[in-house]
Protein 1
Amino acid sequence: MPSHDATRASAERAVDPQAPAESGPQGSSGPLGRRLSRRSLLKGAATAGAAGLAATAIGATASPALAATSRPVPLSGADVKAPPGPIVVHVRNAKSGDIEVFSGTSQNRLRDKDLAARIARAIG
Amino acid sequence: MSSHREAPEISKDPVADSTDVYAFVSPDDPSAVTLIANYIPLQGPAGGPNFYEFGDDVLYEIHIDNNGDGRADISYQFQFRTEVLDPDTFLYNTGPIESLSSPNWNRRQSYDVAVMNGFPHSTLATGLACPPCNIGPQSTPGYPSLAAAAVHSLGGGVTVFAGQRAEGFYVDLGSIFDLGNLRPFEELHAQYGLNVFSGPAPGVNATDHLNVHSIAIRVPISAVTRAGHPTIGVWTTASRQRVRLWDADNGENVNTGPFRQVSRLGNPLVNEVLIPLGRKDLWNSLPPSDDKRFAGYVTQPGLAALLPALYPGVFPNLAALVKSGKPRADLQAILLTGIPAGLIPGFENLTGSTLADMLRLNTSIRPTPAAKQSIYGVLGGDLAGFPNGRRVTDDVVAIELRALAGVTYPLVDKSFKPDAAAAKLTDGLTPASVSSAYLGQFPYLGVPYSGFDNPS
């Protein structure tokens, strides 16, 4: 059974977008210990979007310049461990790349302008 | 009131809306404390076919602070699960519900209980049955026995109940929210020149014949106190996951993310009448340890300033006190720190200097026998009543009105003479204003009103 206090301490983590993919320091596979890499995030967002369960809220429209610098990241479904249940991505501010990712009782926050721009473009 | 629909956001989310908290040494077992948190306000008993139930997506908690820092040292957590046996009928029940295992009970709830006293949590029980709502003589015959079967003993001296109960908080909402009118004194109200009232009238209990949903737990005092520190602080919270999506494909909500607090309640009426409208939602989201931010609303309460204006000439001494700008250290002690030793003979429930809205219960004070209880609690010389915890029968409306009007200010300034009217303030109600009698045993709140017998 979750605790908001405990969850607050353990589940709100900022993710460095420059860190190597799949290099979460927590090393835990549990829902509170999961650390999303940029790659798994992209895959998760794509999966959740396909399932109709992803939500994006665009804090600001991505600029053309930002969108132009966004590069697709090749994905291989086999190397992604998607958590059970929906993954919800909240782009708080597309210009700054401020993104929140929710799954289970976890929440991760990261700053990734490329990803934010791609999501912004995806929603039109 | 005492915290029903008290803040703009939570008023739109009834299943997460805490209405009252009670904490008292159990009269039938003085080695234990009973903690009750009520949710889902103002239930019309006939509200079917989807009768009231706890939110499966809400984390309900009852917290205990036993070191005075305004943070939870022990949290009892309750999470509910709803099961529908036959989704192809619109009926809550397809025949009489004569037991908690009746196949006629189509939509039912169960719950898990856990305790957090560190990390990780410890599960106390899973799959505990709630009782059904009280529908009527055909659907829920023998309701008192049916509900009694939903009182669960978990071992270790822990007893729990979660389900519908009669509202035990008596209050004249219709009068009070009509610009601070108190029917017993309404001829003294300023009436804004409208001259509506010419004489006193009896109070009307707005919550009579209405139900709530109660989460009640009885635990040994030794399990919640520290040695040598008998006073505990108690409050309840409801939390929701940060994200809720309407999944239109499946016609259901999907929740994800960490739980965040959306409702809080400790002392009655604090968020209701002391915290201003623009900060109530924020208050609901924070722990008691953050209440220093709101202390000014307790020590300079707006309602104390309103009383002399609403009742011209009735509260001259209170008016002078308000005008002096002196902070109400008495209210700070009652609501935010506890009352230190030396102010009231034989009594203290101080938890320390941290300003935190918690219901403070000195567990070393034994229950007062029913025949000797005062519904005015400590103000009435009954040290086992509010603000030493809160019993289900305590008249917290009158107690807090009187305190706000200055009755308790002499505790900190013996030169102050309260106005004669202050000690008489009441909305005219007593426990007898509650039609469904309180119980003498756990869970103490009365049998819920049935829809058949209370159709409107």
Protein 2
Amino acid sequence: MYENIIVIGSGKIALESIKTISKFFKKRKFFIYYEKDHFSLISRIAKKNKFKILETKNKKKIENFLSLFKKKTLIISSNNNYLFPKKIIDMKNIKIINFHNGYLPLYKGRNAQVWSIFNMEKFGGFTWHYVSNKGIDTGPIIFRKKIRIFHNTRAIDLTKKCMEQGAKVFDILFTKIINDKIKIKKIKNKKIKKIYYSNQLPNNGKLELKWKITKISSFLRSMDFKPLSYFKNQFFILNKKKYKIIKYKILDTKINKVKKILLKEQLIFQSNYKKIIINYGK
Amino acid sequence: MENKIIKILKNTKPNINFSKNKKKLIKESILDSFDIVTIISEIEKEFNISIKANDIAAKNFDSISKIIKLIKKYN
């Protein structure tokens, strides 16, 4: 049984993890808030649930904090940008589990949901796994689930579904996790080495006008987190001029023509089943 | 400053009388790692300081005088 539980991360999944932990774990709880923005709702909820809080953006500070823990400690990492150093992962009294927004071992690294949509996959998913020192998102898998990507699924839709279902799974598995009674899933295909990093954007944010309409749709939806605004730098180049994509709309249509229409401040792609209207500016 | 530190320590470990003792807080197992982490975040809040990563070590929290010395470094 663990003596300490530490949550590090942000967003819905971290919030729900805090609620679950509070239901079942009455010992010492800590929440590390490692984000660029100011103190959020999650910190208040953590405090209310008797979590001690550390707010810092300093990686070394977190490392030294974690090094102080000598008793059996479980770290829950969810929606977390902090990469655990080898020194911490190797500590025998510490176990780390991480929520990943993708179906591992596919789409390791950051923004898995973005790349799944851009690559026109039929499914995305989520994974709860242990953190190992063999590389990002490579640890033993506790639980993973596929989530269907439809022709109109946006990054925000997929993210929400992953988070909602991921939180439910954590709630179900938590007592097994703290009692070390998790059966590890054996995964056949572990040879996928590609890792996506936070500074990468699909096609570097550039919409290619030669793409098929389905690819254009995937590109636009893959970075669509509205009403949140994560990715703002999508663009296209026309007549050697760069135009910024301001907003877009995808409509189902029955027009039997494939054409591209350029209007002032609007670019329209039309096929026999889809119509995409892009508002652009310089 | 000492009173404020004692108050923080007392909030963390209500059963210990910190005002009397000159004990080794870590070596005598009065405080453990979780307590130190708690105390650090309370000190940062109370004294409006940000303790540097290199100062986050058990040895800096082993006595009230050591904690005072640490805080003075930031004032």
